[in-house]
From TrEMBL:
This is Proline dehydrogenase. It catalyses: trans-4-hydroxy-L-proline + a quinone = (3R,5S)-1-pyrroline-3-hydroxy-5-carboxylate + a quinol + H(+); L-proline + a quinone = (S)-1-pyrroline-5-carboxylate + a quinol + H(+). PANTHER family: HYDROXYPROLINE DEHYDROGENASE, PROLINE OXIDASE. Keywords: FAD, Flavoprotein, Oxidoreductase, Proline metabolism. Its cofactor is FAD. GO terms for molecular function: FAD binding; proline dehydrogenase activity. Signal peptide: none annotated. The gene is PRODH2. Its EC number is 1.5.5.2. It comes from Propithecus coquereli (Coquerel's sifaka). It holds the Pfam family Pro_dh.
């Protein structure tokens, strides 16, 4: 599809040629779960019910430690593997990840691998240069695995993976850079072009606002980022950089912009490094419009993962503590309106600029997904072109399956790794996404409905 797209004349003609004849609204109820095994459905229902129980999420880490002491690590590990870990994580070894991805592929879904890493600012072991170098090796292995996983390897296929910048750069440095990026006059010393030049040449970059240790760490971080991007480009894997806290995001965006100047030139074949935009922030719509226009003016391809945002509670707590303005939208409805406006902006960009502009609609929200598919059809954007969808592994499978069956490109964000590495990450994510986990009632209803149908009506799984 992508090689076809690049061969046609105008961006719009490129897209219209691949359109289905008419648009059908997606039906999320219509038996999406019939493709899944009864065991998987039962586990999903049980785990989602457990995760919607606030004490379990609040005291998750303490409960895990307690169960390990009481039951021993073997039994407690087995329980976790059969429940939360089994539901949200692909596994530990490349073979386990491969099996999970093969199963997703039979359902029409694609992998978006994510290496779960959590920096602990107070731990010397998890902030030293050796820790970031270890993460670099994990990222490079993740690129290889992402490349190997899709059935048809090669540049025509879109292999994607998530990249967490703070796995390769310390949050302390990101906070420092953020404070400088926000000041007027910092733009020349900390320009994306200057950072890109340092990445490419490997020459030592001296930034006057940083001390010697910080400059050393910046150089090492730039070199790690360069190695991941270079390897990902060589293996045809696109990097989707995660957005984190507002205290870090300006620095992360600066680093993404530096990578973009090197790797997002259209002759490289579309954007290889994408940024993530969080619709719950007050300034996101304006920033997204500005960045899209700037990329276009600079002759660069532009890739966006659009999310609502995962750090609401902490953002508000920090603003309260510091007595600063809350950077987030005042309520859920305002975030929804912002998401729809950002979606409209990006779909118009895709329709205007064709395959040099890519978008992942990363949401479990049925209304947002429905709106995206409707506007794609109205704007002449094909289902399996520069716009794709993303949901988390083990969450809202009814949305992913409905999209996949209708021919859209759907990715499941897949964390993988050992129990010890992944459980703290999962529990922290669950704490940040409390409202989402409590809101998956509809998924629970659909799971119950399908299980009841199988038990009472004698209905069975539909095999692919
Ligand atoms: C593939 C993928 C990648 C992701 N990557 C990132 C990432 O890089 N960075 C990141 O931050 N998140 C990321 N997320 C998580 C994402 O931001 C959301 O937390 C999650 O997807 C829930 O939003 P939703 O659109 O799916 O659903 P919904 O359940 O409809 O929305 C829930 C979201 O609405 C917002 N919200 C809820 N209550 C309020 C309120 N009172 N006021 C204002 N806003 C409110 C919050 O953002 C909340 O997460 C990713 C998600 C996916 C699927």
């Amino acid at each position: 599809i992508f090689s076809n797209l690049f061969n046609k004349t105008t961006p719009q003609a490129q897209l219209v040629n691949l359109l289905p004849p008419n648009w059908q609204p997606l039906n999320f109820d219509e038996g999406a779960f019939r493709l899944k095994g009864t065991g998987e459905l039962t586990r999903a229902l049980l785990v989602l019910r457990l995760c919607a129980w606030p004490p379990l999420v609040t005291h998750g880490l303490a409960l895990q430690a307690w169960s390990q002491r009481l039951l021993g690590s073997r039994i407690s590990g087995a329980l976790l593997r059969a429940s939360i870990y089994g539901q949200f994580v692909a596994g530990e070894t490349a073979e386990e990840v491969r099996r999970c991805v093969q199963q997703l592929q039979t359902l029409g879904l694609r992998p978006l691998l994510a290496v779960p890493t959590e920096e602990e600012p107070d731990s010397a072991a998890k902030t030293g240069e050796a820790w970031y170098e270890g993460n670099l090796r994990a990222m490079l292995r993740c690129v290889d695995l992402s490349r190997d996983l899709l059935e048809t390897p090669g540049p025509a296929r879109n292999n994607l993976m998530q990249l967490k910048m703070t796995a390769l750069t310390s949050t302390r440095l990101c906070k420092e850079l953020t404070s400088w990026v926000r000041r007027p006059g910092a733009s020349l010393e900390l320009s994306p072009e200057r950072l890109a030049e340092a990445m490419d040449s490997g020459r030592n970059l001296q930034v006057s606002c940083l001390n010697a240790e910080q400059n050393g760490h910046l150089q090492a971080a730039l070199s790690r980022l360069h190695r991941v991007a270079q390897h990902a480009r060589a293996q045809h894997v696109r990097l989707l950089v995660d957005a984190e806290y507002t205290s870090l995001n300006p620095a992360l965006s600066l680093l993404v912009a530096a990578l973009a100047t090197r790797w997002n030139s259209p002759r490289e074949g579309g954007p290889w490094v994408w940024n993530t935009y969080q619709a719950y922030l007050k300034d996101t719509h304006e920033r997204l419009g500005r960045d899209a226009e700037a990329a276009h003016r600079a002759g660069l391809a532009f890739g966006v993962k659009l999310v609502r945002g995962a750090y609401l509670v902490k953002e508000r707590a920090v603003a309260r503590l510091q007595g600063t303005e809350d950077p987030t939208r005042p309520d859920y409805e305002a975030t929804n309106r912002s998401y729809s406006r950002c979606l409209e902006l990006m779909l118009n960009q895709v329709s205007r600029h064709g395959p040099t502009c890519h978008l992942m609609v990363a949401s479990h929200n049925e209304e947002s997904v429905r709106l995206a598919t409707k506007r794609m059809w109205e704007l002449g954007i094909p289902p399996d072109g520069p716009v794709c969808f993303g949901q988390l592994l083990g969450m809202c499978d009814h949305v992913s399956l409905a999209l996949g069956q209708a021919g859209y490109a759907v990715y499941k964000s897949i964390p993988y790794g050992s129990l010890e590495e992944v459980i703290p990450y999962l529990i922290r994510r669950a704490q940040e996404n409390r409202s989402v986990l409590q809101g998956v009632r509809r998924e629970q209803e659909l799971l119950t409905q399908e299980l009841r149908r199988r038990l009472l009506g004698g209905g069975r799984r539909v095999r692919h």
